[in-house]
Structure formats: C-alpha cells, structure tokens
C-alpha cells in the first residue's frame, strides 16, 4: 500500500475587493483542518489567491499585472508555505505567474512536505477569447491575459508516487490525461473556476456543467488508471456564479469523495497509489495495447478535416 491522505481544499467565492492576505488566511485555516484530519497533501483551486479575474476586461497592462505574482512564495504566500511546512503537509495551488522576463501564465505548483516547490505546470488549453465580446453573457478573457503553457504536462516523483497537474479547461481534453498517463501518472491534481452558466449558451446551466465536469474526470481517471483530485473555486463572485463539485476520483473512475457546498470545504480521502497498478497492467497496459500507427492525426492536425465527397 502507498496511501496518501488527500484533502481537496475547495475555496468559496473570492470577491474582486478581497485581499491576497485574507485569502491566504482562509487557505491556512483549510491546511490546519487538513492537519487535524491527517492529510499528507492539500490541493487548492486554479487562481486560488484572487477572484477569477479573466472575467474582467482590462486594457491597462499595469492593472492586469496586479493580479499576477512575480515570486512564489512571495510576501503574501510565505505564511501559507510556512504553515504547510510546519504541519508537514504537501500542497498544490494555482496562481497567475508573471515571469522575470515578462511572460504571463496560468500556473500551478506542487510543494513537498518541506515547503519546496518540486513541480510546476502552466495551463496549456486556454479557453475563451482575447477581445471584449458583447455577444457573451460574461467575459472569459484567458486568451488575452495568459500565454499557453510552455512546459507540456510533466509528471514528477513526489510523496512516493508519480504526480501530474492540469488546470480547469485542460480536464476536458483526453490528450491531457493521456500525455501524463504515458509517463505513468498515479495522481493528477487539478484546480478549476467553471462559471455555472455557458456564456454562449444560456440553456446550459450548472447541472449540465457539473455533468460534463464529472464525465471528463471519471473518463480521464479510468482510461489512464490514475487518481484525479479536482478542486473548485465555487460560489458567487461579484454576481458571477461558479460551480462547486470538488471531488476525488479513483483509478476505476469512481467518485470516492465529493464536496457538498459552494463554500470553503475540505474533501478528504485516503488514496492508495497502488490502486493504479491493476488497470495499468491489464486493460490500459499501453505498451501492449496502444496502436500508435493509427494515432498520427492526434498530433499532426489541430482542427477537423472532413473526408472528401
Ligand atoms: N477556467 C476555465 O478554464 N474555465 C473553463 C470554462 C470557460 C468553460 C472550463 O473549462 O471550465
């Protein structure tokens, strides 16, 4: 058995006016609760330190840059790293990263139990648009504020297992899981901010969104025989609702723990990484069963090319 007790640390809404330090206080309260529940690892959402700012249209780059961190840990996040290290808990969370040479990414990090960052991921699949779109019920300007990630989908040895990360929209793409599956991933950590309504399809509400969320997590976990830990920022941010539904999915694709609220809430499960072995050695033994000679279109072509008449 290689059991890791995981706490999915869902955050309730963060308003535009909320300070980083107020959010970090909430994150510290969750890691303290996690300690009381014997967690080894706490996972927080995408862009955990602020409101989901890509909903706001900004033209002034200085205003945009206020939402980004130039150091991790930085002045606001050092107390969180100190607390997690003192409690001996590893953690993962998302934030907006501004590099020293001026690049902007939607990033997640994994810190070990000593507070050292051991893995970094930059969001590859950026949804939304890059200019103000009056046709939408709300804006989703990730393509305006971030570059596509440049690190691929790395898998890292940590906590006695093989860990990968992805962020929000990445979870809808089978390629995300498979690229990590091909590196033997045993646990995928992912945070998200998913609006409860589709900005281009008002009929698609929160129940539909939760259905799609669950569908892709369960499929990704099962098809790659990996744990998936998915953690929301949820609830109403300045009049903009986000779904909850934080959950832990086992390598059989079953949901084993799930949030019941749209507030700060810890979802805990003892995950045995050895549970990944059976699927990886049988139906999803990639080395024996994959047929890469037929998969060229996956990497050779981006959009759809229909067959000729
Ligand atoms: N933060 C996100 O990536 N959100 C997207 C929305 C725009 C659909 C998601 O896939 O949940």
Describe this structure in words.
Helix content is 25%, strand content 25%. It has 309 residues and is an alpha/beta fold. It has a single domain (3-300), classed as Nitrilase/N-carbamoyl-D-aminoacid amidohydrolase (4-Layer Sandwich), CATH 3.60.110. The strands form three sheets. Strands 5-4-3-2-1-14 form a six-stranded mixed β-sheet, with helices on one face. Strands 6-7-8-9-12-13 form a six-stranded mixed β-sheet, with helices on one face. β1 (3-10), α1 and β2 form a beta-alpha-beta unit. Bound molecules: 3-methyl-2-ureido-butyric acid. Residues 46, 127-128, 140, 168-169, 172, 192-194 line the site of 3-methyl-2-ureido-butyric acid.
Produce a short descriptive summary.
With 309 residues, this protein is α/β, with parallel strands linked by helices. The chain has helices at 20-36, 61-65, 78-87, 142-145, 174-181, 206-224, 277-281, 286-289, 296-300, and strands at 3-10, 41-43, 90-98, 104-111, 117-122, 155-158, 161-167, 187-192, 227-232, 235-237, 240-242, 247-249, 255-258, 265-272.
Fold topology:
Blueprint lengths: L2 E8 L9 H17 L4 E3 L17 H5 L12 H10 L2 E9 L5 E8 L5 E6 L19 H4 L9 E4 L2 E7 L6 H8 L5 E6 L13 H19 L2 E6 L2 E3 L2 E3 L4 E3 L5 E4 L6 E8 L4 H5 L4 H4 L6 H5 L9
Helix pairs in contact: 1-3, 5-6
Bound molecules: 3-methyl-2-ureido-butyric acid.
